[in-house]
Amino acid sequence: MKNLINLRYSLAFGTALLAPVAQAEITANVAIQSDYVWRGVSQNLSDPSIQGGFDYANDSGFYAGVWGASVDFGGVESTEMDLYAGWGMEFENGVGLDLGLIEYTYHGGDNADDSNFTEAYIGVSYSGFSAYYYAGDEFDDLVEVSYGYDFESGFSIATAYGDYDAYSYYTFGVSTEVEGIGLDLSYWDTDISLGDLGGDQNSFDLVDGRVVFTISKEF
C-alpha cells in the first residue's frame, strides 16, 4: 500500500483532469522530485524519486493513462505503477465534472502486489476551486478541496487540504515554466503526531512538514 504508516495523485493531477479537452491526443511526462509525497506522506523514505507517464484524452472527455514512480517503503517495493481512466469536462457555465478509477500497483519483489489497491473518485470544479471525493478498497474515504490560480507573469499557485478519518494533510506551492521545463516548489504537512505512531521517530520523519522541489517536462 502507499505508506500511510498503517493508518496514498497529486494536486496537479486532479486539476489537470478538469481542463476541457480540445482534441484526441497522447502526451508523455517525466519528472524528478526531491521527495515523492502523496497526501502528506513520503513514499520514498524522503529521498528523490524519478517519475513519468503517458496520457490519452479525446474530445468526448474520456481520458486514460499510466504513471510510474520509484518508491521505497523500507520493504520490497521499488516501483509504483498507476493505471487510471475516467471522464472529465468543463461545461459552458464554467463548472467542471470529473469521475474515474485508479488502480495503484507495486512491483519489485514477490509480495509487492499485496500492496495493490483501487480508488474511485468524483470531483467538481469552478473558477479555480475544486472538491474531490475518493473511495477505495484499502483506506478510509477521503475528501480533498483545492484552489489554484495562474498569474499573467507565468507563475501559478496551488493549495489543497485533504481529510481522512485517521488524519488530515495540507499543501501549498508555487510553480512556473522556463524554456518548456516545469518547476514547482511545494510545502506538505500532516496533523499526525509522534504519539499517534507510538513514538516511532523513523515513521514520523515520513509525515512531518517538508518542502518538495519538482522539475518536470511534458511531451
Quick synopsis:
The chain has helices spanning 11-17, 201-204, and strands spanning 25-33, 37-38, 41-42, 49-57, 62-70, 79-90, 95-107, 117-126, 129-136, 142-150, 156-163, 168-178, 181-190, 210-218.
Keywords:
Porin; two-stranded antiparallel sheet; 2 helices
Question: What does this 3D model show about the protein?
Answer:
This protein has 219 residues and is mainly β. The protein has a single domain, classed as Porin (Beta Barrel), CATH 2.40.160.40. 5% of the residues lie in helices and 55% in strands. The chain has helices at residues 11-17, 201-204, and strands spanning 25-33, 37-38, 41-42, 49-57, 62-70, 79-90, 95-107, 117-126, 129-136, 142-150, 156-163, 168-178, 181-190, 210-218. The strands form two sheets. It has a twelve-stranded antiparallel beta barrel. A two-stranded antiparallel ribbon has the order 2-3. β4 (49-57) and β5 form a beta hairpin. It is globular, with a radius of gyration of 17 Å. Residues 3-22 have low confidence and may be disordered.
Q: So what's the CATH class?
A: Mainly Beta
Number of domains: 1
Q: What is the fold named in CATH at topology level?
A: Porin
* CATH architecture designation: Beta Barrel
Assigned CATH superfamily: monomeric porin ompg
Shape: globular
Low-confidence stretches: 3-22
In what order do the strands lie side by side in the largest sheet? 1-4-5-6-7-8-9-10-11-12-13-14
Count of discrete alpha- or pi-helical segments spanning 4 or more residues:
2
Largest sheet: 12 strands, antiparallel, barrel
Gap from first CA to last CA? 30 Å
